[in-house]
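Appendix B. One record, verbatim.
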Amino acid sequence: MGGEICDKFRAQSERFGTRIFTETVEKVDLSKRPFIISSESKEVEAETVIIATGAVAKRMEFPGSGEAPAGFWNKGISACAVCDGAGPIFRNKPLAVIGGGDSAMEEAVFLTKYASKVYILHRRDEFRASKIMQNRALANPKIEVLWSSAAVEAYGNEKNLLGGLKVKDLKTGKIRDLPVSGLFFAIGHEPASKFLEGQLEMDEDGYIRTTPGTTETSVEGVFAAGDVQDKRWRQAITAAGTGCMAALQAEHFLQEHNIQMGKSD
C-alpha cells in the first residue's frame, strides 16, 4: 500500500513537470546560491533546496534480529510501536520493548492498549527517561521491567513469526526464555544529515534545526522537512505536513526573489 501511494505521488508530480533523478547525492554546496547538488554522474544547480532525507531507527544486532529468512524483522520485530503495534499478530499477546529513554516508556505504554503484557528490557538498573515518563510506565499494571537485561537471541514459532527471546541477566550471566510475539526497538533514531555537517545548524543528535513554526533552516533558501528535522513525532502524516510547508515556503522564497518558477539547468 505504501508503495502504491508513492507511485501515485510520483506520477502526480511528473504531470506537473517535476523531473526526477534517481541518483545518490555525494556532495552538496550550500555556501551560496545557486546551490549545487552533486551525484556521481550529475550536477544540479538550484535556487532553493528542500532537505527530506529522513531518519533511520537504530536497531540492535543479535541472532534472529535481522531480515528473513534468518531473522524476524517485520515478522514480529519492529522499531515503531505506533506504526505496527496495533497489528493482529500483536493483539492480546506478550510484547517486549528494548530501551530506557522517553521513547521506550511512551512505546511501552502505547502497546498496553493491545498487548496482554509488555516487558521493558533495559541494560542498566535505572532509566534515563524523564521522571514523568518513568512513573507513567512503572505505574501501568501491564508493564514489567527486566532490569540489567539484554536480548541475545530471537527465535520463531510454528508460523515462522517471532516466538520469543533469549534474555541474559547482565549481573548473573543467566539466560532465560521470554515468550513474546513482538519486539520493538526504542533506542533512538539517526537522522540522515551527516553529509550536511558544517553547512546547516543541527542539534546534538544531528537533527537539522528549523525556525519554530516553519521549515526554514540556518541557510536562507534551504528548507528541511520530515524526520530529518523532527525528533519527536516521526510519523508519515507529520512528515507529509512539513513537506507541504516546505514546498509552500520554497515557492514563496522564489517569488520574493523574483526567480522564475521551473527554471533549471
